[in-house]
């Protein structure tokens, strides 16, 4: 893909939100404003906090609202994605900070470098299944591709991981930001922090299964990918070290 300069002039940023902490949301919007993108679309998942709603409506950004409270970011992000005008789109969580944009887009995807995540420069499909992590936030993706891998409205899967699995399976190339440019904020009592570890690992298995369905992955490959997901369920972060012990050399080939 030909490199495009002045990315901000062609970038739509979509921010789904539901009652985020006020100060975090305010800081998020202030940071986005400094980046000066083509447009910012705030999609309200039926928030009940009047101060948050007022902040969004008075921000000067586009304000949209879901028809019902969905409880996750799939529906609001997809609604925002339908309205974007930019060549590129980027999803930002309402309580996080996007600090910097790339100077150019050598490929269709540019991944952010997130404060809590391992460097994704050499990320592979297998590695993301063995060690799932949220690296979709802050990623800049061409709008056409993003619309082809829209988020699911299903609570039972990780949309951010599902999207990256699909793109990696399609062998989309990507660049990575050279310095940390996305700050993920841990919010108390969120699903991520309040649910037990095995809940998230089961959800990851369902995410991998959904990926296999959506990409029409063959029976043999699906079995292989699900075996990798089971290694994550059993061993968590140590799954990569257990790969050769539990997966045959034939399958690895």
TrEMBL record:
One family name in Pfam for this protein: Glycos_transf_2
Keywords in alphabetical order: Transferase
Lineage: Bacteria, Pseudomonadati, Campylobacterota, Epsilonproteobacteria, Campylobacterales
GO MF: hexosyltransferase activity
Record's protein name: Glycosyl transferase family 2
Residue intervals passing through the bilayer: none
Domain Glycosyltransferase 2-like: 12-98
Native source organism of the sequence: Sulfurospirillum deleyianum (strain ATCC 51133 / DSM 6946 / 5175)
